Amino acid sequence: MLVGYARTSTFDQVAGLEAQIAQLIATGCKVFSEQTSSVGDRPQLDAALGYIREGDALIVTRLDRLARSTSDLLRIIDLLEAKGVGLRVLDFGGAEMDTQSPTGRLMLTMFGALAEFERSLMLCRQREGIERAKRLKKYKGRAPTARAKLPEMKRLAAEGLRPTEIAKRVSCSRASVYRLLAETRR
């Protein structure tokens, strides 16, 4: 059986997720998909890894959709090998790659290391840019999203709604509702 895994980091990347899913379905996969950062929990990846059986193949469109680091990639591959499952990457620098061959395994390990190196460089440049922006007093950080919804939270609280229901209606965490409403009472 072919088991596909699709992932994007944010909810803004709907088209990217849909494209991955379409490619995996066209390949004949049963698809597990999610929108979550690679550093966060990935319940659908865990579900896919639990679902696969000996003789199956885990299919991803690109390597960066699967693993967060070389060590994470190697951990996943070890798990797949222990189950007798192969890994196929549909777009591996313009060609398909399959870990069931020695060359595929070598290429995957090398490219995983290069991808991790590239990500480390990107994060370093990002930190440098943030530090420079802070020195120039131009860095504002992430815009507070829950605080912008405070007027609506107050209105719903005045109507007698509980914090859990308010959180659902304004699409934020219950903890944010408690914290912001408590701040306004001080």
Quote the CATH topology of the largest domain. Rossmann fold
CATH superfamily of the largest domain: Resolvase, N-terminal catalytic domain
Total domain modules? 2
| Major sheet size, sense and barrel closure | 5 strands, mixed
Reading side by side through the largest sheet, how are the strands ordered?
2-1-3-4-5
In percent, how helical is the residue content? 40-55%
Q: N-to-C SSE series?
A: EHEHEHEEHHHH
Class inferred from helices and paired strands: alpha/beta
| Rg estimate, integer Å | 22 Å
Overall, the morphology is: globular
CATH class assignment of the largest domain: Alpha Beta
Average pLDDT for all residues: 88
Strand fraction equals: 15-25%
Number of helices: 7
Low-confidence stretches: none
**First-residue to last-residue Cα separation:** 59 Å
Known CATH architecture of the largest domain: 3-Layer(aba) Sandwich
Number of strand segments: 5
Describe this structure in words.
By secondary structure, the chain is α/β, with parallel strands linked by helices. It has 2 domains: 2-131, 3-Layer(aba) Sandwich (Rossmann fold); 147-185. It has 7 helices and 5 strands, in the order E-H-E-H-E-H-E-E-H-H-H-H. It has helices at 14-26, 43-51, 70-83, 102-135, 150-158, 163-170, 174-185, and strands spanning 2-8, 30-35, 57-60, 86-92, 95-98. Strands 2-1-3-4-5 form a 5-stranded mixed β-sheet, sandwiched between helices. A hairpin with a 2-residue loop joins strand 4 (86-92) and strand 5 (95-98). Helix 5 packs across helix 6 (163-170) and helix 6 packs across helix 7. The protein is globular. The chain starts with a strand and ends with a helix.
